[in-house]
Amino acid sequence: xxxxxxxxxxxxxxxxxxxxxxxxxxxxxxxxxxxxxxxxxxxxxxxxxxxxxxxxxxxxxxxxxxxxxxxxxxxxxxxxxxxxxxxxxxxxxxxxxxxxxxxxxxxxxxxxxxxxxxxxxxxxxxxxxxxxxxxxxxxxxxxxxxxxxxxxxxxxxxxxxxxxxxxxxxxxxxxxxxxxxxxxxxxxxxxxxxxxxxxxxxxxxxxxxxxxxxxxxx
Length: 218
Known about the structure:
This protein is mostly helical. The protein contains ten helices and no strands.
């Protein structure tokens, strides 16, 4: 391992060149490591296929793989990465019907990861939009609603309408993140009932707003 005293005599240019070389070497090693872990995942799936144990749930299979990992010296982090790749490769190997018959999710770990990121992004966007659009608290000396409406500037009116369109778009994005697969396979009956109630309330609000839109068109 490099020590600080080993390179204190080097110029700035030499240090930058050294850092760049280490960085490039890291990229090579990192890329190779990912390929090797994916190759191990393929081996694991081949073992499952040979043993007709696609879910890897039998004690015999688990002992074989445990011994293989131990012989290779793979730590828990590396094993976790292999399991991630196994999940992705399995979804490319088996059909949707085969996955469902085995009680496995049809979406891959990478797809679920992307869905989770998209859901988080939608929630963050919703929180930001709600905070920016939320009305400010009025002081005791604040003008009446009619006075506020009369003094609303053109710029404020544009922002208000833009905010409403943005809120509607964010709401749609949020609903789009609700996944049918999660509802069917992961939620309890109580959670499904709660979700149904929430969606019903949202539907009522949407219907009311759409009635307002249609009345102004008339």
